[in-house]
Specification:
The protein is mainly α. It has a single domain, classed as Orthogonal Bundle (Proton glutamate symport protein), CATH 1.10.3860. Helix content is about 70%, strand content about 0%. It is built from 22 helices and no strands. About 45% of the residues are buried.
């Protein structure tokens, strides 16, 4: 390793430490992001499906099974997705709650706002009925699953019968029976059991974490077939409905964007002003650069590092920011919550199979639990939506492929709403715990104390925002360099 003299104490070259020490590998080059090809493929497939449906409707309806096959691939991996995310999600809850008042208040706020967002999606969906002008026929598999669910409901009616259906015959039969609620039950029991073991259960959680990576990698592989499923679904629905189907999808998109806008500046703005007397429009202006980054990447996680830095600059204590922001990215997904329930109502209307109030409430409760822990994973929203429909109305699964064509265009609104919700939550939790300087918050949001962009802001990799570039860090004027910081 290169020796540094006292005279050169202020000229430490980090490359000397990296290159001369075999224990510290150089930062690997970030893999190229190819997901834009998937989005392009979906758009081309949607346009092709619409064109075929208009030109040759009889032929187009014959491609409908392509969408059905794609959904079967998604439902195939729903049980392990639910199991892994719930088990690890319980771990996140315990970790957040263990850090004291800030963590507990954050969790209460997250669950409350996510539930409210889900309810907003249900209400808006029932009011506008966006899919009422479409005609989507359920597949034979979906009809068979619905009949089996109905038969099961008849054989075990009442409260005790419903509870009996949730409990599987064996621990492993839940994963083969096709009952998502049984998998959810096993995951909850398993998660709480592991957490009760304390540190002894950490190796098990590590294993589940690695298993989750494999499952989501498999989900990513399946999503590369999304253009095929989108083509078949759009060709089939346009072939049987005509241009009216395109109009209904446009209505859903417009209604979703409008709902997210009203949620941010209406609901979140009201909550923020009620507790802190701060203006949501000023907060949005303060975070304008991050909003642009989110629109460019369609992911709220791309702006996570900048959000943490800006919340600290605004006067929120670093410890509070470190608790609220990362936890919020798994538990405070307001935009995703609105998307899930609005999409479910849209599919039910499009298939002319409206869900009863009881089914809608049951679906809402399921979404509250199942949506936790799957944040930041491409396709997780479609998977959770499919799981919810499979558990409550299996015949509606046939309508999920239709959403693939517009899912990408709804991603920006989801991400912006998620991001705004976490920004507001950070200030609120800081206010409730007394870990924020509200005078500084006011001065920052009004522009009296401007935020100056740093090298870290400009060097955030939009494809891998969690990886920092060591070359952008300014070394302290001392030879005592903490090399562990560069081992990331």
């Amino acid at each position: 390793m290169t020796q540094v003299s006292q005279a050169d104490s202020h000229k430490v070259d980090i490359e000397d430490y990296v290159s001369d020490s075999p224990q510290i590998p150089k930062e690997k080059e970030a893999p190229k992001d190819r997901t834009h090809w998937l989005y392009i493929g979906v758009i081309v497939a949607v346009v092709g499906g619409i064109a075929l449906g208009l030109i040759a409707p009889d032929i187009a309806t014959g491609f409908k099974p392509l969408g059905t096959l794609f959904i079967k691939l998604i439902t195939m991996i729903i049980p392990p997705i639910i199991f892994c995310t719930i088990v690890l999600g319980i771990g996140s809850v315990r970790a957040a709650a263990s850090v004291g008042k800030a963590g507990g208040l954050a969790l209460i706020y997250f669950i409350t706002m996510s539930t409210f967002a889900l309810a907003v999606g249900l209400v808006v969906g029932n009011i506008i009925e966006p899919g009422s002008g479409m005609k989507i026929e359920p597949s034979e598999e979906a009809i068979r699953a619905a009949e089996e669910k109905a038969a099961s409901g008849e054989s075990s009616s009442g409260l005790w019968g419903m509870i009996s259906d949730i409990i599987p015959d064996t621990m492993f039969s839940a994963f083969t029976s096709g009952s998502v609620l049984q998998v959810l039950f096993i995951a909850l029991m398993f998660g709480f059991a592991v957490q009760s073991m304390g540190q002894a259960g950490q190796p098990i959680l590590n294993f589940v974490g690695h298993l989750q990576k494999v499952v989501f990698k498999l989900l990513t592989m399946i999503l590369w077939l999304a253009p095929v499923g989108a083509f078949g679904a759009m060709a089939g629905v346009v072939g049987s409905t005509g241009l009216k189907a395109v109009g209904q999808l446009a209505i859903l998109m417009f209604a979703f964007y409008l709902t997210c806008f009203l949620f941010i500046f209406g609901v979140l703005g009201t909550v923020l002003y009620a507790f802190t007397r701060q203006n949501i429009f000023r907060l949005a202006k303060y975070l304008a650069r991050e909003y642009l980054l989110i629109v460019a990447t369609a992911s709220s996680e791309s702006a996570l590092p900048n959000l943490m830095r800006k919340m600290e600059h605004a006067g929120v204590d670093r410890a509070t920011v470190g608790i609220v922001v990362p936890t919020g990215y798994s538990f405070n997904l307001d935009g995703t919550a609105i998307y899930l329930t609005m999409s479910a109502i849209f599919i039910a209307d499009a298939m002319h199979t409206p869900m009863a109030l009881g089914d809608q409430i049951g679906l809402l409760v399921f979404m509250i639990i199942a949506s936790k822990g799957a944040a930041g994973v491409a396709g997780a929203g479609i998977a959770v939506l499919s799981a919810g429909l499979q558990s409550h109305s299996p015949q509606l699964l046939s309508g999920v492929p239709v959403l693939l064509g517009i899912d990408k265009f709804m991603g920006e609104a989801r991400a912006l709403t998620n991001f705004s919700g976490n920004a507001v939550a950070t200030i609120l939790v800081g206010k409730w715990t007394g870990t924020v300087d509200m005078d500084r918050v006011h001065d920052v949001l009004t522009g009296k104390i401007p935020y100056k962009a740093t090298d870290e802001d400009s060097q955030v990799d939009m494809r891998r925002p969690d990886v920092e570039n060591p070359a952008t860090h300014t070394l302290a004027p001392t030879p005592q360099v903490n090399l562990k910081h560069y081992e990331k």
